[in-house]
Amino acid sequence: MGKITNYTELAEAPADDDLFVMVDVSDTTMSGTGTTKHVKKSNLGGGGNPYGAQTIVPDDYTSVGEAIAASTSGDTIFVRNGTHDEIASRTVTQGRVNIIGESHLAVIKFGNYSWSFSNYKRFNISNLYLNFSGTGSITDGGVTYDGSSITNCYITISGTNTSPINLNKRACRFMGNHLWIGGLLNGPMITVGGQSNQVTDNIFDFYQPKSASTVVQVSGENNSVNNNIFRGDYVRTNSFAVSLSGTNNSIVGNVIEGVCSGIQVNGFYNTVSSNNVNIPASATGIEITKGRNTVTGNMVRGYQGNYGILIGSYDVTVTGNTVYSGDTATGSGIAVELAGDTNNVITGNRSSGWLHGVNIVAAATDIVVTGNNLKSNGTSLTDNGSGTINSGNAT
To answer: Which regions of the chain are under pLDDT 70?
Structure first.
């Protein structure tokens, strides 16, 4: 079809996802990079082929995988409402493909089959119901070209899968999706690698009391995990909502409602800001294991928690956070954990209801603790370090 020229461009994701989908608007003769836009459905035609699609499932093919295998770069595949079972794994070698559902009643069941988009190939998946009940997955390649997107989808993850969704390129988007998570996963539920990727405005619902590893695993640089909600009726043990390794990433504005530990940072120069974390018993709100990170403006609430904010490295700035617990018999609001931790700054925070408001272990050095409100704890400041600067704290 060449390229889509009659579309409505938005500066950001639309408020009404039912009226818009993410599609590729690049010239299909381009072989590497491309451009995706939120396109208004009414601008893409109507009748029996509402998106000007080259292929309709199940009219033309019995499975979406078959349609993908037969497509050429720039094609749009329209998936009608109904249940569509994948029947084989697919390695995609053509350039770009848009896969758009009629509604969330268009269900793709992956079972034990997978889609793998290799090298310079990419996908835009929107307005579908993706069901991962086995070992199936969606993976894009690791080449640093503009990446893929999964937007406005319902997603269920209920098998013994290892990372059912993997976005490993640059500028990938996982946006506006609603996930229901059960089963016993053997790896992260979503992995994001590369640069400038976005995991934003998603809802993660936990509906089974099973253990799992990290929910969202991010590596690389300049990625953002923002404004997501993690919630549900069951606690996931031994699990973080977000685990990040890499540099210059941001984790901002997420809500984590008592279903697992909160946020873990294993890289440098990252920002954790304005998150609302409610941790279950024996969990940790925010854990920093590498240096030169900033933790600011977060709210962490816990009951019988291990730590509100745990610092395990050097040159970490923790400022303007509120950490609250309802049990002064256990845990630390803010803790500097390891021997060798040095030059951390803890300032302008409010820590209350913990056994220790701030806890500095032996052999931690030159920790700055200033201007904090450390009232209503078992012990306001426990200082076993050396060279600690302790001034202006309300105790």
So the answer is: 1-52, 94, 119-121, 141-146, 161, 184-186, 208-212, 234-238
Residue 385 is predicted with a pLDDT of 92
Contact assessment for residue 250 and residue 271, using Cβ atoms and an 8 Å cutoff: yes
- The β-bridge relationship of strands 20-24 and 36-40 is antiparallel
Residues 179-202 have pLDDT tens digits of 988 776 667 889 988 889 999 999
Residue 163 forms part of a structural domain: yes
The encoded tokens of residue 357 equal 């408001």
**Of residues 125, 202, 136, the one with CA closest to residue 163:** 136
Residue 58: cis peptide before it, omega within 30 degrees of 0: yes
- Whether 44 maps to a domain, the answer reads no
Give which of 103, 47, 95, 104 is closest to 68, Cα–Cα.
Answer: 95
In a domain, 6, yes or no: no
Give me the CATH number covering residue 87: 2.160.20.10
Phi-psi region of 140 (alpha: psi -120 to 50; beta: other; left: phi over 0): beta
Q: What is the dihedral of CA 325, 344, 250, 265, to 10 degrees?
A: -70
Q: Cβ of 49: how many Cβ atoms within 10 Å?
A: 15
Answer yes or no: is 164 within a domain.
yes
What is the rounded CA–CA span in Å between residue 297 and residue 248? 18
Residue corresponding to tokens 């086995």: 134
Coil, helix or strand at residue 5: coil
Cα–Cα distance measured from residue 213 to residue 269, given in angstroms and rounded to the nearest whole number: 24
Q: Which two tokens stand for residue 47?
A: 């009748």
β-sheet bridge partners, residue 20:
40
Total count of domains within the chain: 1
Please give, one letter per residue, the 3-state secondary structure of 254-273.
Answer: CEEECCCEEEEECCECCEEE
Angle at 247 (CA atoms; ends 96, 386), nearest 5 degrees? 165
